[in-house]
Amino acid sequence: MTRLTDLLAETEYSIIQGEIEDIEVTKIVNDTRGIVEGCLFVCITGANFDGHDFAEEAVNNGARVLVTEKEVKLSEGSGVTIVRVESTRRALAYISAAWYDYPAEKLTTIGVTGTKGKTTTTYLIKEMLENGGHRTGLVGTIETVIGDTHIPSLNTTPESITLQRYFAEMVRAGIDSVVMEVSSQALMLHRTDGFVFDYGVFTNISPDHIGANEHKDFDDYLHCKSLLFRQCRTGIVNGDDEHIGDILKDSSCEVVRFGLNDGNDIKAGNIELVNGGSYLGVSFDTKGLLDASFRCDMPGRFTVYNALCAISVCRSLDISVEDMNKALKNAKVKGRIEMIEISPAYTLMIDYAHNAMALESLLSTLREYEPGRLVTVFGCGGNRSRDRRFEMGEVSGRLSDLTIITSDNPRYENPEAILDDIETGIKKTGGEYIRVTDRKEAIAYAIHNAKKGDVIILAGKGHEDYQEIKGVKHPMDERVLIKEILDEE
Prior knowledge:
Number of helices: 15
Helix content: 25-40%
Number of domains: 3
CATH superfamily of the largest domain: Mur-like, catalytic domain
Distance between the termini: 61 Å
Strand content: 15-25%
Largest sheet: 11 strands, mixed
Strand order of the largest sheet: 11-10-9-12-8-13-14-15-16-17-18
Structural class: alpha/beta
Radius of gyration: 25 Å
Number of strands: 26
CATH topology of the largest domain: UDP-N-acetylmuramoyl-L-alanine:D-glutamate ligase
CATH architecture of the largest domain: 3-Layer(aba) Sandwich
């Protein structure tokens, strides 16, 4: 148990009802399903539910303290203490940090934000730090990693109460550093409040996550991304991004800029594409704060930016060039340009590209390697915008030598109807394509008909290990499918 006054030490509040002195709290909760006797319940206003509406239920089930941002209706004589704050989400972050004894202060904290590249960059940083002797945790889109424990993620950045618990578990496990993806939603909803990042990292920004339940417009999205640089000691940022001035507006941190253009503190040059037959990569040199040569076994100009970002962070943490290069060669990010080496004659990879912008970026990059053929296997999710299907079909038809249309997560839609929409987009281009609805059969077709010099990309599923059909997630991992196909030969 923890004293209420200690939990509120970093929070501005007023007392609406009851007393706070000598109250011991047994647990902090923001979901009525976790209510226990003597707990503190934080009333969160969400997109679909409002915790304030469940205040009386929480009290009846044993909550001793309510933290609110507006009036709640309770029966007379409830005896509960009501604490009023300006923002319950922000209060939850500070209360959670206090509950777990401020674990972020015992870690080197690295937060990575941006539209693209966050996941890959966090894994590269983790690998570099571990090569340099740091025990490093990770929080991100795919998973949270605490030592040997891997926890699948529901959100890119978890709610503050969960995040602080993860930090505390990392400290107990002897971890000294954590690198995490910081989404714009997390910054907007105060999930990362309650501590100061040692390093805030910016990859790039382009329009995304704009809609009814996310950001009202690009300016709002940009503003939320910029909040990280008011909450970190050192900012490590892509100096080539056209919006970098807006990102750093009102920032309070020291800044290190990386990029390919003049004026950056760490600049990459002498970029060369590397084609190893079964894999694609890139090499480059750096000048400025770090003069060195690097090679990464992932393709493309965006890989240079991701690698340069990780290098810039780890240089600040005194990681050697040797340890950085080792990470760039060995680090694999599940579902992010993930090379599957099965033949020296052609390249096979898995990537999460699941919208037109991501697919165009990926295929344009792979085109630079002048493959014999660029073969793209992809589908689109059901119960999502049909425009995405037309657009992705048009992109693949234009940039691929062969497109194999297949099923993704059909959800509650007819898979054939989804393929019809993709086909409509491809037909605008005159690109060659075939339809193979079953995803395993589609992958098998690509492998069995591969030619020397081909680059085959399995797009859309990435790190996912399931296929969602009529509300049920069926096990389906493309890596497993590939092994089964090869074993059946």
